[in-house]
Amino acid sequence: FAALEGAAGSEPPLKCEELRLGQYPERGRAGAAAPKIDNSTQEPMNCTNHTAYVQCLPAPNITCKDHLGIEKVFTGHEVGFYKPIECRNVNGYSYKVAVALSLFLGWLGADRFYLGYPALGLLKFCTVGFCGIGSLIDFILISMQIVGPSDGSSYIIDYYGARLTRLTITNATFRKMQTYP
Fold first, then answer.
1. Which among 72, 81, 69 is positioned nearest to 31, based on CA atoms?
2. Same domain, 83 and 152
3. What ranges make up the beta strands (E) of 48-142?
4. Do 131 and 169 lie in a common domain?
5. Rounded CA gap, 39 and 30, in Å?
6. 87, 109, 133 — which closes off a domain?
7. Number of C-alpha atoms within 13 angstroms, CB side, residue 141?
8. DSSP state of 70
9. Which of the four pLDDT bands, split at 50, 70 and 90, describes residue 28?
10. Contact 66, 72 (CB under 8 A)
11. 0.85 cut: is pTM over it?
């Protein structure tokens, strides 16, 4: 009976990176401390290769192994691990400016010049925005963030603002077959 009691009550502590949600307080995105945001890019500071690391503070009385493998009991105020979060590559193109240019000066092609498409901008300028139809289509495409900067970067959008996330279906996408009664 004593052997069973010892085996059931003594689980080896997890690595701090393997803690479950709720074992570190829900602060900011994905349970980590809120990242420090760069005012000029509206992305987390120290963003490299589309990844930034934020501090995660395990809850009080949580025992886990740190990155050195040392077992530690946390008080809720120490950094237990650094969690990677996704960030975007931005090069100075503002979403607000692009939408405003498209709305007010789209018929002159100013939006396309701003985003780095001079040939399309010149074509829109010479045809007065394709008689207004091209300006309307461009306004919709820019507003939906389908057309972006020509260098492949993302728009600067407020970090906690409304962003669109494009979902795609690939061969790796799980599809559940519909069953009929």
1. 81
2. no
3. 51-56, 63-65, 71-73, 81-86, 90-94
4. yes
5. 21
6. 87
7. 14
8. -
9. low
10. yes
11. no
